[in-house]
Design a protein that fits this description.
InterPro entries: COMM, COMMD4/6/7/8. By secondary structure, this protein is of the alpha+beta class. It has nine helices and three strands. Helix 2 (10-24) runs parallel beside helix 7 (89-102), helix 3 crosses helix 4 and helix 5 runs antiparallel to helix 7 (89-102). The longest helix is centred in the first third of the chain and has 20 residues, at 49-68.
Length: 187
Amino acid sequence: VADKIRLIPQDFFAELCEQIIQHLNHKIPGVNTAELCQRIQTSGVEITIGDLAKIANVLSFLFSTAARHNLSTEELVSTLGNAVSTLPKHAVQVIRHVWNEQGKSITVSEDARSMATVGQFVDIKWKLGVAMSSDTCRSLKYPYVTVTLTVADPSGQITDKSFEMTIPQFKNFFRQFKEMASVLETV
């Protein structure tokens, strides 16, 4: 991971650390590593989304563990111990600065920990389409709905999950959402 961190420019690394702190503070649902990875690649750095996700997981673990143990900035940096020698100097400076500025704001409650194991819903998008034909069938002409759910997994990685439904399936899906909404109104 240290070799991959070395590739990331300091401003992008700082943005990643700040997003992780915001995620741990429940201010944002997760870290959009796909978008950040694309911006890093556009700047000319060769890094994969998988590598960036690993770095985000390591940093999230580092910050949440430091918060759980209520570490000061100096305790965090000294706890990194041998890793400090392998981490690039700019990364250690960013970790020190971000933790010093925002580390104390992280609250680790039992409710948040148990909720974080499930993931969090971020957004939903849908579109209506009509399949006109295929290789095996000349005239399909059936409507379908494509739904894309944006979800932040427990580590904070934001991913999109897409699926298609027939109109009857979508009507059932919609009915279930209406039932959930009516139950929520009574709470």
